């Protein structure tokens, strides 16, 4: 991955976290990694833990960002989430899997779209 793409992805994650916070979500962790995979953002809305995949693109030439979240990525999200819940001893809690699409047109932010229940 190029440095430019890494920077774009990191910017997208920060914008997504800010977007979620403005809507009342509490950000608990970012870029949570374990042997099962990675989750970009872990948030809490007061009753549900939300595991969020952030996809950032600089245009739609290759389709919507969410279209790149394939079965394998969803499977890794689930495994990572279960690892997180176990590590935090959150046994019987409510959780879900969301995505946030961050789109740029050139260097300008054009859209942030939160999609709930992607798994």
Automatic annotation (TrEMBL):
This is UPF0102 protein Gferi_01470. One of its GO terms (molecular function) is nucleic acid binding. It comes from Geosporobacter ferrireducens. HAMAP family: UPF0102. Belongs to the UPF0102 family. The lineage of its organism: Bacteria, Bacillati, Bacillota, Clostridia, Peptostreptococcales. Pfam families: UPF0102. It comes from the Bacteria. SUPFAM superfamilies: Restriction endonuclease-like.
């Amino acid at each position: 991955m190029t440095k430019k793409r890494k920077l774009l992805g990191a910017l997208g994650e920060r914008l997504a976290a800010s977007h979620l916070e403005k809507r009342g979500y509490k950000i608990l962790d970012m870029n949570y990694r374990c042997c099962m995979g990675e989750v970009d953002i872990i948030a809490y809305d007061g009753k549900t833990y939300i595991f969020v995949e952030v996809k950032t693109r600089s245009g739609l030439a290759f389709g919507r960002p969410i279209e790149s979240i394939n079965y394998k990525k969803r499977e890794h999200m689930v495994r990572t989430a279960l690892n997180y819940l176990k590590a935090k001893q959150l046994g019987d809690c409510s959780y879900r899997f969301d995505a946030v699409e961050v789109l740029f047109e050139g260097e300008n932010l054009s859209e942030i779209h939160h999609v709930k229940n992607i798994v």
